[in-house]
Amino acid sequence: MAIDKQDSAEVFRYVSEPAAALTETLRNGQGDRYLLLESEQPLRTLNSAPWGGGFGFHSRLINRQVDKSYMCEDPLTEMDDFLNRSEIEAATAACLLTSVHMSGVGRCHMRWRETGPARSEGSYEAGPSGDIAVSVWVTVGYSNKARAGRVLAPAALFPGTINVIVVIEGKLTDAAMVNAVITATEAKAAALQDLGVAMEDGSAATGTTTDAVLIAATQSGRAHLYAGTATLLGHMIGRAVYEAAMESGRIYAQVLAGPGSGGA
Question: Fewer beta carbons within 10 angstroms: which end of the chain, N or C?
Fold first, then answer.
C-alpha cells in the first residue's frame, strides 16, 4: 500500500521483497538460532557492535539469539566460534546479539520509484537520480529499558538489546551512513514512546542499555550525501524502522514478555 504522497512523482510503497535482493533465512543449528541476511555482493556497512564493527564491507548480516544470561569474557572469540560452527566465514559477516526470540523479528520493506520528472533535493543528493529502496529488521525487548541522560546507579546498568538492521539500495557517503544511524535511533525511540514503554517515574524510555544499529548500503545507484528526516532516504529509514520496531514491540508485549519467556 502507499503511504504519505508528497506530489505526483513521489509515492512511498510498502513492498514484500527486501532491498538489495537480499535473501533472508532463520537458522537453527547446534543450539544456535539466528537471522541471516545474505547478499551476492558485499555491502558497505557501519556497525555499532564489535563483530564486523565500524565501517567495512560484508555480504552477510546476522542477528544472533543468545540466552538472556549470556556473559562472555572474550565475546569476539566466542562469536568466531559461533561462525565456525555455522560454517560462515568471519570476514564476510557483520553480527549483532540479542536474547529476543527470532520469532519476534519485525520487518518493513519500502520502495520509492520516480513516476514523473526527477525530483531534485538540491545539496542533499549528488549524482544520478533513481529508485530508493530500504529494508529494516528489528528485534525489540525492553526488560531493561533505559532513558539516555537519566541518572542511574551502576547496579542498574545491565545488558539488553534492541537491534536494528537497515539495508539501503543507494550510494551513501560515510557521513550519510552516520546520519542513517541517527535517523534510525530517533525512529526507534519514537516507536518505544508510542508503544508506551516508560521508566518507573513515567518518563519515556529511549531504548535499552545495549542497543545496536547496523547500516548496510549497496553503494550503487542514487547517491546520498545525507540521510536525515529532511531527505527522501531519511524519511524512508525513519518510517521503516518505526514500523518494524512497532511490529516487534507488539509481539514482545503480547507473547514474549509472558511468564518464562526469557525476553530481553
Answer: N
